[in-house]
């Protein structure tokens, strides 16, 4: 696979290239800015996947992603970015993978927010109530006032790798606990286990 990476930190670009050195993949573009990336792509440099930094000076990663989806829709994008500030998530988006089961397997998928790297303090942001549509982004407003450092998508039981694209929207801030997400009018209980281990039984391990 031909891979392009765009990051304004040379150390990151060199590190990623080192990780991929002994794999079948090839770094065809190593760019420090959007201008360098698109100049290479316009010359016809082969690229199957883009590793994209979001927080860059000048043209940021969001703007790069929008242009990529318009001009190079066949190139897959993986976001590689670090921002440890808390964000209040206000909206999420998703699209199922393109195959015969992807649409159904996003049903009951969960978006979560957390402030611990291991997600042991994670809270639900949104539960997908219906199947998706291949090639189409679905969106939902998030009703959770707390800010989080980390976000993720958790597929329903026995449904892995069934998401083609995810989007998170929000604003910086620690937020508060005035409103937390509820699936129904009844209280929502979210249980997490260390390293995702499935409990043996509720008497001994819960």
Record field, number of beta strands: 11
Q: How does the helix and strand content classify structurally? A: alpha/beta
Strand content: 25-35%
* Quaternary structure type: single chain
Order of helices and strands: EHEHEHEEEEEEEEH
Distance between the termini: 44 Å
Helical percentage: 10-25%
Which spans of ≥5 residues are poorly predicted at pLDDT below 50?
none
Question: What report would you give on this structure?
Answer:
The protein contains four helices and eleven strands. The protein is globular. Strand 1 (2-6), helix 1 (10-19) and strand 2 form a beta-alpha-beta unit. 21% of the residues are buried. It has helices at 10-19, 34-42, 61-71, 202-205, and strands at 2-6, 26-31, 49-52, 76-79, 87-96, 110-114, 123-127, 138-141, 147-148, 150-154, 163-172. The strands form three sheets. The protein has a four-stranded parallel beta sheet, with helices on both faces. Strands 5, 8, 9 and 11 form a four-stranded antiparallel beta sheet that branches. It has a three-stranded antiparallel beta sheet with strand order 7-6-10, with no helix packed on it.
Based on the model shown, name its key terms:
single chain; 206 residues; alpha/beta; four-stranded parallel sheet; four-stranded antiparallel sheet; 17% helix; globular
